[in-house]
Amino acid sequence: MSFFAVFFHAIKDTQEFEALSYPILKGLILSVFAPIIQNPTYLEDALKNSRVELAFILALKMPELEVNAQPPKVLYDYPTLPELQKKLSFHYETNIENLEQLSEEIFGFASFREFPRQNPTLEDGATLSQHEIVEAGLRDDSFLAILPTGGGKTFTFWLPAIIKAKTLKTLTVVISPSPSSDKRLY
């Protein structure tokens, strides 16, 4: 007998496992992971159709395990895992409602600047705000924002990246061409 066979044989003889119904399991997961599962509507589907992916997501979110990211092999074997993690853990509307507070916590200021649009006939409104740019970043929209020097371009890319990194434990690379902009944010 192999080592693992002996182990599983010992467990079988000493432990009885009880199958839990989906509502009970969902309730247990929500009670333990309440701050992490921001969209519980996706949880029931994950319990039925993506149990392995859900297990990896919950393991990633457990502070006791100190896992910083999903291993590449896991992402390769379960390519739907990042999208499921985003559906379960990232609630766009909540982050938008708390944007000023999150900005204050991270950067020390809670206001967003506005700039005149160069061609207001192409878009709604006469101004473009940093808030709109951050919202687009949180929605994963493709966009082009041209702001004046000192207009806070780096801030508008860093803020959604940091929010997503905290929520999803993901990596976002922000390339900033101006080293001087880094000094103003510290």
Describe the 3D structure.
The protein has 11 helices and 2 strands. The protein is mainly alpha-helical. It has 2 domains: 20-89, no CATH class; 93-184, no CATH class. It has a two-stranded antiparallel ribbon with strand order 1-2. It is elongated. The protein starts with a helix and ends with a helix. The model has no long low-confidence stretch (mean pLDDT 82).
Quick one: biggest sheet? 2 strands, antiparallel
Poorly predicted ranges: none
Q: Give the topology string: H per helix, E per strand.
A: HHHHHHHHEEHHH
What's the overall geometry? Answer: elongated
Q: Tell me the β content.
A: under 5%
Helix/strand structural class: mainly alpha
User: Number of helix segments?
Assistant: 11
Please give the domain count.
2
Helix content: 40-55%
Q: For the residues shown, what is the average pLDDT?
A: 82
Radius of gyration, in angstroms, nearest whole number: 22 Å
Distance between the termini: 60 Å
